[in-house]
Amino acid sequence: MAAPRLLLDTGLEAGMVADLPPAAAHYLTRVLRLRSGDAVHVFDGRGSTFKARLASAGRHWQLELQSLHSVEAPYRCRLHLAQSLIKGEKLDFALQKATELGVTDIWLLHTERTERRLDAKRLANRLEHWRKVIGAACEQCGRARLPVLHEPRPLDEALAALANSYCLLLAPGAPLLEAALPVADTSVFVGPEGGFSAVETAQIQSRCKAQPVGLGPWILRADTAPVAALSLIRQRWDWQAP
Questions:
Q1: Whole-angstrom Cα distance, residue 229 to residue 184?
Q2: Within 10 Å of residue 73's Cβ, how many Cβ atoms?
Q3: Share of the chain above pLDDT 70, in %
Q4: What is the pLDDT of residues 167-201, one digit of tens each?
């Protein structure tokens, strides 16, 4: 069996010994049933992956980092997902699949049709949860760099940050994505369940010169649309890393 992959989002270097958080120790020893001395690959979320060995230390577990295993190449360009906030598990699904499909940045948007706003305490809890979803997706798919998760913000702020990228606006009934797509900084705008309002659509098109793109004759759900669009983009890029 291949060595399992584990994210430790901290400074890592060969030769160090890292204490395992309880949740990670439970997963490795109780779920995967690893034992002391078994191999684990540990990555830091910034591109570096290390070979490590599981070690028992009394009532807790540690990882002994043995050597640098690999370093993921820097991004050639950025692939941004500008995703309107949607409910619970739907957003988890979109974040998970976007991570697997290679996005470098995730922008969460407050829009006119966003159903619920988060207070400060709930936002902090949700951000921690979303980062765990993204980290678990990286562990599963083999990525060593975590996508950047930008806190929820008004659409205007995201437009200002993404205006210089090649922008695509998902819109039912619009022309399909062109066959030749430049490998360049690219942003994909996805609306909420009710879609972007007419005013928001006009803002995205005017401020970002966004190209409306359709995904076939049917209207896809707000959590399905980004998966379909990102898959098409990566296919146009021959599945090379961004």
A1: 16
A2: 10
A3: 99
A4: 999 999 999 988 888 899 999 999 998 899 999 99
The predicted model scores a pTM of 0.93
Beta bridge partners of 5: 41
Q: How many Å apart are CA 72 and CA 7, to the nearest integer?
A: 14
Of 49, 13, 7, 12, the closest CA to residue 27 belongs to 7
Q: What is the DSSP letter of 195?
A: -
* CA gap 240, 242 in Å, rounded: 6
Please give the Cα distance from 52 to 44 (Å, whole number).
Answer: 13
**pLDDT tens profile 129-176:** 999 999 999 999 999 999 999 999 999 999 999 999 999 999 999 999
SS3 139: helix
User: Which architecture does CATH list for 5-71?
Assistant: Beta Barrel (2.40)
Fold that domain 79-236 belongs to in CATH: Alpha/beta knot (3.40.1280)
Topology agreement, domain 5-71 and domain 79-236: no
- Interior/surface letters 50-65, b for 16+ CB within 10 angstroms, e for the rest: bbbbbeeeeeebbbbb
* 20 has pLDDT over 90: yes
Separation of alpha carbons 155 and 191, rounded Å:
10
Within 8 A by CB and 6+ apart from 221, the residues are 90, 193
Contact 115, 152 (CB under 8 A): no
Residue boundaries of the structural domains of the chain: 5-71, 79-236
Angle between helices 155-162 and 198-208 (to 10 degrees): 20
